[in-house]
Design brief:
20 helices
Amino acid sequence: MGNSALIFLSRFFPTLASAGVAIYFSHRLDTSVYGTYVNFWTRLFLVSTFAGLGLQGFLITYTPSTIAGLLKTLRSKHYAILLAWLLATSAVFAFMENHVLGCVLSAMFLAVYVSSIVIDALLMAFRSLRVLIMLNLLYAVLFAYVHVLFVNGTLDFVQLFYCLLVVSLLKLIVSLFILLNDIRQQVVDVDSMPPGADIRSLWVHMGVYDVSQVVFKWIDKFIIGWLFTESVSAIYFNGSNDVPFLPLLMGAVGSAALMQLSADKSEEAPVVVMNKSGRILSSVVFPLFFFLVFFRYELFHIVFSKQYDQSIPIFLASIMVLPLRAYNFTVVLQNRHKGRIINIGAVIDLAIACILMYPLYLLMGLPGVAISFVISTYLQAGYYLYHTSRILNVSWGKLLPMVNWVIKLIVFCLLFIVIHYLLAAYYTPQIVLICGMILAALISGVSFLLEIRATKAKYGAVR
């Protein structure tokens, strides 16, 4: 799991800092102030995915020499078009955020943020992962520090984002110098370059997919922030936000699986790789899922404070999607360049969620909004699995380690029921949560190591 571990660590520290800030703000800030803060980031994430044109996902699918060749063959007009698009989207974002941070700061923030995402993806593609880990560690420390200054009153809201802009800009400059050095070291073989039409086709397909996925992740929070007060936004955000680090783990395993499939062209490779990744991911995802289900009240009362009690039903609805995170349903489709299928699934996913959102809100309130996205995600997973089985000409049962999953689901469910019952009967909520987290980490760690050993024995070395 060398590639997976490095990819995971390259994104771990900024995610840790963001999660820490969310917890810190939940205890120290009024819900209306915190709501204003999360609404800004929600709009930033939405607009930035259009500004980035899906480049970050597209770039890591090619080898370093291919990317270097592509960058060297692009003409000045191509870079000018990309720059013009970035400036245009920055202007749109500046208009949206003028009432919060002002036009200039908002535009600069988006431009630097998008540029950093693309540069980080290039460093990852060039295998400069250890350097990226160190840069992101330093960034995370400074990110957390300026937020502490804001809560202590040293910085006001606008000054907070000016400081974040300076930190991001410094990281971007250092990353750019490292990237240019990586590019100069690459030997480009023009004859081995993929046809331009293939590159454009893959970019379009992956760009559409990345945009749709980010829109799917943030559109509910954007709508809530648009229609409701900042306090309601804060409550919904804390209840519906992704579990920290899980998307990173999925992305790391998915990226490693793509690299492995690119290197191994054997007929049985896709089935083997997907079974391996499904078994390994489930050893972490399933214990996490049951921990969150049974310890949700202690988690919110202690981690986020009791002013976010209304987030708990939203949270319970949102985490019903977690079992699906034990499998990356698009890896084989990406490897086989089935962008059209991926994009149709993404659009169907988003459309179903939007259609169900309002009626389920009327029926269940804010948890209904979260449930609409859970339902659409399960339908999307079935769509992708159906097409993957057709492409590989195997039954869907061979693509999923079903027996392994069923055993884990039963064992982990019973285990966490017993653990929570025994802890809650004798200890305070604080002790219950601490012990639950320790036991969940131990169970996940042991399960992960045992699965690595079992997978290695069954399929060979795990990379």
